[in-house]
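Researcher: Please generate the 3D structure of the following complex. Treat every line as part of one assembly.
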Amino acid sequence: MGTFMMILVMAVFVNNFVVVQFLGICPFLGVSKSTPNALGMGLAVTLVMTITCLITYPIYMYVLVPLELEFLEIIVFIFVIASLVQMIERVIKKLSPPLYNAMGIYLPLITTNCAVLGVAELVIDKGQMMSLLHISSMNVGVAVLYGLFAGLGFTLSIVIMSGLRGKVDRLQVARSLKGFPITMVTASFMAMAFYIFNLVSID
Amino acid sequence: MRMYWTILSAIRWGKVGMVLGIVAALAIVFAILILVVTKVCRIQEDEKVTAILEHLAGANCGGCGCSGCAGFAQALASGKACLGDCAVTSKEEKAVIAQIAGLPVDDSEPTVAVVRCAGGENANDKFDYCGNDSCLMRQSVMGGAKACSAACLGGGSCTLACPQGAIRVRDGVASVDKSICTSCGACIHKCPRALIERIPVSAPVYVACSNRCRAKDVMNACKVGCIGCGLCARNCPNGAITMQDNLPVIDYAKCDGCKTCVAKCPRKIIREHNAPPRVKKQKAPAKTEK
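Model: Done. Output below.
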């Protein structure tokens, strides 16, 4: 339970993928115009992140490391993510058309989402993960949980951002700031708010 | 030449083989997996739906109440929607769709949306509203700041909803630009007071008020609101206007555009459809001077 809470707090708040690690900025700014879309994108990313961790972690630990082929990680991970997204898209289309319709075009877009590759790269970094989460050993379960909560953190920030943008877009701002610049300013203030979690020490 | 040999002999061929092997193995495994998944998860997509979707306008405005054009195509194919719900698709395309789906042809005249309120600064305020801009919020605070229960709140929720940008809030009242409006209906669902409705494009006049109260109540609330006097209905040479609940209802099939009603209306609330809402420009500065 302690580890579980630790992963939750670390992945969702302290090391939020978007506003602290600056990964996945493209969908964060591109798909945050309306809250339902943002939620769909967030959930799609969460799903892909979780399954990616479930598959890339064993491939790295049990195939690449014993063969001393660690340098292949990026190629292999991109490969796995791209194929996974294809498969997940088809499975969802079959199992749950409403969910497929809700996620729509965002699912294929995730193929090129750096946050997904980022989480795959992060969880294989044993030393960093262990010091981050204060645990003595790393396993697939932790990797998958981290992927899940990293995705939920992404969802949280993109949904908050969509709400903020809904408000900010109505405001009268200087013409030079209208549109994208004011969105960036909003994002930076949001990132500052999230940065406060870094001051929280967890023992 | 010798340098190349040194480089070549330094390459660990076993490792290269392993790399190639792993990449090839992954490629084959995932290719097979994707093939299998595709095969297992194949859905029989309704040919009718795809055919209908091809002929829809593809505006994805949501005015029909479905989620995008794909949802509307599905609803059409299953008979849950009628073609009249979509205002964006052209007549010719609709005829093709009617043939595909076996639906009755929708041959009604194209429509546009109008805001049936001319209030704004003419309508009296109950209090000064200060807060969130959306109409729903305005409506929820003591039933809106306007004294008239059917007055445009001026929050601009319809403006935001309009995919064409055809609606503007001028002097506190929303108005639709007839030349841009595609009658998609997105704004109609957004207005908390249901002030927006569709009328034919060629309609010469419309009633710019939705207040069904008695004359005295309307007089107290608004300078221009319809008082239900019935002069328009009595004077219409074609009998196109009938009074219902203190409001004139115009039968556009009978109306020939003589505009007698516009001239006769004591409150000037029956308006020419092509003209933008008349706003007394001089009023606003006079108020601020006070």
